[in-house]
Write a structure and sequence with these properties.
Elements lengths: L4 E2 L14 E3 L11 E6 L8 E3 L5 E3 L5 E6 L1 E3 L4 E4 L8 E4 L5 E8 L8 E10 L2 E2 L18 E6 L6 H14 L4 E7 L5 H9 L3 E4 L12 H17 L4 E6 L9 H8 L3 E7 L3 H11 L5 E3 L6 H11 L12 H11 L3
Length: 336
């Protein structure tokens, strides 16, 4: 018998390769967050990496089995897909290496096709399907009352995670207990692990609250986020460095996340790919960030253009020479 690989969306469960059965279920019983088993089809010329629960990447081969979860991805620069688009063939794709499963409906011409798989069945125990939501431990809901450094972007790949690592590192060096969090986006453990490497005492994302991605209906996200915020509050951090994956304007519920933590945001960093995108976000939200970073601050010319177009300060956080200035801004914002 082929032992399945467990993708990192299973890290919140107690699943092992041997403690469940696989049973095909009728379509009307499928739902977001269901754990399912897919058989890898011919992966030649396709993305074929899977992220394991601990974050290690492996390459799978044809006929390997992978356990992931049904979900939705709506990436502006890479791939769009949804489990609801899976047709009668049962063929679908790993929309992220973390095991976010759905059928690709739109793909950037600059990206290799996501790994193709075929539905083998749902992960079952005692004749009931195993789900992400059903795998969560019950916890007491806690009020969230922690200062937040919020990182948002004009799109994916705008420099949010890199900037977050710098901020986590600086705050940790100040002696603060820092929790790293990713409030919205599509499942991938790598980003949060990099926050831990930078000095975060604990890391959480929407997967820890039972979602394979935050691209769900607004009501479901509003009910899910308090669980994630309670997990963070239990750590009793001095500050939370929170990334809103993708852009608040994309259908990942970034605007809802911002709304629900607005009163606790002490410093807001906007990562943009170019200075003109900064103006777009300013116009859309009618609120200015405290600092701009990312591609829009790669050069002195870009920084000057951000100042001219938006009247905002920008720093190239890839340059260590900027970190003293950023640290001073953070101290002032957090009243240290």
């Amino acid at each position: 018998m082929i032992r399945p690989f467990l993708a990192s969306v299973t890290r919140i469960s107690d699943l092992t390769p041997d403690n469940f059965t696989t049973t095909p279920l009728p379509r009307e019983q499928w739902d977001t967050g269901d754990y399912v088993v897919g058989k890898v089809l011919d992966p030649r010329g396709q993305m074929k990496a899977i992220e394991l629960p601990g974050g290690r990447m492996i390459e799978v081969m044809e006929d390997d089995l992978v356990v992931g979860a049904f979900g939705t991805r709506v990436a502006t620069l890479e791939a769009v897909g949804d489990w609801r688009s899976i047709d009668e063939s049962g063929d679908f794709n790993a929309l992220t290496a973390a095991g976010l499963f759905g059928k690709t409906t739109s793909l950037s011409p600059f990206l290799s096709s996501p790994m193709p798989l075929r539905y083998q069945g749902h992960v079952m125990r005692n004749e009931e399907k195993v789900t992400m939501q059903g795998s969560l431990p019950k916890i007491d809901q806690m009020a969230f009352d922690t200062p937040v450094v919020l990182i948002v972007g004009t799109s994916m790949s705008a420099g949010k995670t890199m900037s977050g690592r710098v901020i986590v590192h600086l705050l940790s060096q100040m002696g603060l207990k820092v929790v790293g969090a990713k409030l919205t986006g599509a499942a991938r453990y790598r980003d949060m692990l990099s926050f831990a490497d930078a000095g975060a005492s604990a890391i959480f994302d929407f997967v820890d609250a039972g979602l394979p991605s935050s691209a769900v209906d607004e009501d479901r996200y509003r009910k899910t986020l308090p669980y994630l915020l309670s997990l963070i509050s239990r750590e009793k951090p001095d500050v939370v460095v929170a990334e809103a994956g993708a852009s608040p304007l994309e259908p990942y519920n970034g605007a809802i996340a911002k709304e629900m933590i607005r009163d606790h945001v002490k410093f807001k960093l906007l990562c943009a790919q170019d200075p003109y995108a900064v103006v777009g976000v300013q116009h859309a939200f009618q609120r200015s960030p405290d600092l701009v970073a990312g591609g829009a601050a790669n050069t002195d010319a870009a920084i000057a253009l951000v100042k001219k177009l938006a009247g905002l300060q920008a720093l190239n956080l890839m340059d260590p020479a900027s970190h003293d200035q950023l640290a001073q801004m953070l101290r002032q914002a957090l009243d240290l």
